[in-house]
């Protein structure tokens, strides 16, 4: 069975690993290399690095657009039986969808959280259940017929990092089953009335005002990789936990100072803060930070 695989981050890499040795991966299509960090070092996508480091004999395509006729012809030239898509980062035009059945492994239980950031959105909403949907792609944004689901729990200490790993494992196990049983599966249309959407995350989404402890903690879980969470004065909260869901306080008030953490009040509830990072400085212990700022119980972080 010939597969053209389309994906970009480590979530996609895990799914690709699950296909190696079972199917003939005839090509990888991924995003172009992009500048990363302050020095803007040109960096390949995670999945490209994996293929190169493993020495896999898989042609790699990195087109800036999928609408180019030459790109479409090149993908068609591999004569795939299926196109498998996982967090690729672009919508597929109908010309590519018509080459072969295109199966997307979306990291939510569709039609919930169609769009760019389903894992982060599940954490922001405080969901306790999520999963992976294998979907037969159409031209819409995650609107295609459903082929299969797999489900997992979201624990209170799960972050985007751990949840990405859980869902990648689910998708890696689900994909071969869907491909092998494709002809026996009856696709199930999505109910648009139940659909919800999630947006592409911006840096500004990470700003917090400590209005609610649970909401703030969920933002920390969702944005732990990027953009993180930070106060209006630019102080980043790098390691926190939910201390109390209830209780009324001044936002940012230091309620207690312990050996390894401080307790910070929100308008509702409070947070345990272990690590912070001041603007343009290195990450440090929260206790060391407040001592350096000569603030303590009763003062505020911003």
TrEMBL record:
Family matches, as InterPro entries: Fmt, Formyl_trans_C, Formyl_transf_N, Formyl_transf_N_sf, Formyl_transferase-like_C_sf, Met-tRNA-FMT_C, Met-tRNA-FMT_N
Keywords, alphabetical: Protein biosynthesis, Transferase
Catalytically driven reaction(s): L-methionyl-tRNA(fMet) + (6R)-10-formyltetrahydrofolate = N-formyl-L-methionyl-tRNA(fMet) + (6S)-5,6,7,8-tetrahydrofolate + H(+)
Pfam families recorded: Formyl_trans_C, Formyl_trans_N
Domain Formyl transferase C-terminal: 200-293
EC numbers on record: 2.1.2.9
SUPFAM superfamilies reported for this sequence: FMT C-terminal domain-like, Formyltransferase
Residues that coordinate or bind (6S)-5,6,7,8-tetrahydrofolate: 108-111
Record-annotated Formyl transferase N-terminal domain positions: 1-178
GO annotation, cellular component aspect: cytosol
GO MF annotations in UniProt: methionyl-tRNA formyltransferase activity
Enzyme's top EC category: transferase
Family: Belongs to the Fmt family.
Its biological purpose: Attaches a formyl group to the free amino group of methionyl-tRNA(fMet). The formyl group appears to play a dual role in the initiator identity of N-formylmethionyl-tRNA by promoting its recognition by IF2 and preventing the misappropriation of this tRNA by the elongation apparatus.
UniProt cross-references to PANTHER family, sorted A to Z: METHIONYL-TRNA FORMYLTRANSFERASE, METHIONYL-TRNA FORMYLTRANSFERASE, MITOCHONDRIAL
Annotated protein name in UniProt: Methionyl-tRNA formyltransferase
Organism of derivation: Nitratiruptor tergarcus DSM 16512
UniProt lineage: Bacteria, Pseudomonadati, Campylobacterota, Epsilonproteobacteria, Nautiliales
